[in-house]
Design a protein that fits this description.
- It is a single chain.
- About 75% of the residues lie in helices and about 0% in strands.
Length: about 240
């Protein structure tokens, strides 16, 4: 089920603690996002999938902070924004940031960790850690510590985002920039490797979605068992 309560409450912590943690995460992401854009330059920064995913996470966290504030403050909240205000937006953002953060982190640790040992300033390493690694931890918190769910048809949402990114980089290419990732360049001689790379990422995205789907299923199943056990104990005592 996906509603105001599911996005603003947790099985494990109170709504107030969920709100506090979300505010801390949002402030960290925004600080890191601004610092990264300033260090790299906005034009360079926004070419990369990782940084666009980081921007999406900041938008998602802003949305869920408002949802938590609306739930916790109730009528005292001057600007109310919750799941029922924009369900498709919340669904789209939730599925995308929880799925694509897996991909960013796994690709980074599998292929790009060589840059950890390259001759780059320490402050750049610190700023880079957020969108490449800590993004996954933050989004796993959202996956486990909320009551949001996914439906199987939602596997299309991260795929749509990935193909929108392909269109985005082509536009940048026609604007005079190089491709941010070499395998996206269909103009080089072994173009079929680009196609295989894109199809591989699409398949990987589908697999990641169903990993998240399974995590949510196990989370909810464990809580249902816990509630049944508590109910049975209550009936026995009565």
């Amino acid at each position: 089920m996906r509603d105001n309560e599911s996005i603003a409450t947790s099985y494990f912590i109170s709504p107030k603690w969920l709100l506090i943690i979300r505010i801390v995460l949002f402030l960290y992401v925004m600080f890191n996002f601004i610092a990264g854009a300033m260090l790299s330059g906005a034009a360079q920064y926004f070419r990369f999938f990782t940084n666009l995913n980081w921007a999406a996470i900041s938008i998602y966290l802003l949305l869920v902070v408002f949802a938590s504030l609306t739930h916790v403050l109730g009528d005292r909240m001057p600007i109310k924004l919750s799941y029922t205000s924009a369900p498709l937006l919340y669904d789209f953002m939730f599925v995308n940031v929880t799925c694509l953060s897996w991909i960013v982190s796994i690709v980074y640790w599998a292929l790009l960790t060589q840059y950890l040992f390259s001759d780059i300033p320490t402050y750049y390493r610190v700023v880079s850690a957020g969108p490449h690694t800590l993004n996954w931890l933050g989004m796993m918190f959202e996956l486990v510590f909320t009551k949001m769910t996914m439906e199987k048809w939602m596997v299309t949402l991260p795929l749509v985002s990935m193909f929108l990114y392909l269109f985005y980089v082509v536009v940048w290419k026609f604007a005079g920039w190089s491709y941010p990732y070499a395998f996206l360049d269909f103009m080089f001689s072994q173009w079929y490797l680009s196609l295989l790379g894109i199809l591989g990422f699409a398949v990987f995205t589908v697999l990641v979605f169903f990993v998240n789907y399974l995590i949510i299923h196990l989370r909810d199943k464990s809580q249902r068992k816990k509630m049944l056990r508590v109910y049975d104990e209550f009936v026995e005592k009565a």
